[in-house]
Amino acid sequence: MCTYVFSQLSEETLKTLVTLNEKYIAPEEWEKMQVALTAEEDRRLDDIKSTLYRRHLATMNETTLWARAIYPMLVLAEQGYIQAWSGVPLKAAYPTFALEGEADGVLAPVIGGHIRPPYLIVNEAKRGIHAPDPRFQLYGEMLAAGRLNWEREANPEQEIFGCYTVNDSWAFVHGTVRDIETEKPTFTLEFSPVYNGIWDAEQIVQLLKFIVAKHLKEINNG
Q1: Which site from 49, 95, 111, 218 is most exposed, i.e. has the minimal number of CB atoms within 10 Å?
Q2: Which residue blocks in the chain are alpha helix, DSSP H?
Q3: What is the pLDDT of residues 187-222, one digit of tens each?
């Protein structure tokens, strides 16, 4: 069995491992995936945005941009035992291949101080001419999370959300993994519009809150 590192994945490699099924979903459908912000969340979000106005975000180093523009919005989506974490190692084995590496950020259940398989993965795009395409690294991380969640729940269909950021812009991916125990699982992907981290900050956090609320509802109904 071959083990693939997330950062080394390409579209060609992924197509040999899984059946990729990419679907178009209208922007209006993503607009329905929202949970309103509280007054306190609005205030905290205004504080985040105020630190970003008139900053040269395109030249800001990745660590600083993550700390200022991305991670704080993940924290705003926390609810109950669902928490935001950075630098999360992931490793999962399917019947014919394995995936491993580190996710830049996640929203995941945390019980007794220990993180459980995440429900949302965030990949921060690396910069430079030779930097890998963030989409395929994210797909690998989502596949790993889907497998880990399946090992805990064994549902035949695993839903997993992902997001990749480019500077302060966010693009979401809704993924569904099926046929997990077969030689070639099916991975269905639906893509959001690109959201600007300042002008669309409310929509980003509303969407993050929707994802968390959806996960909590499924857990409570399970």
Answers
A1: 111
A2: 11-17, 27-31, 39-50, 62-65, 71-76, 134-153, 201-221
A3: 999 999 999 988 999 999 999 999 999 988 877 775
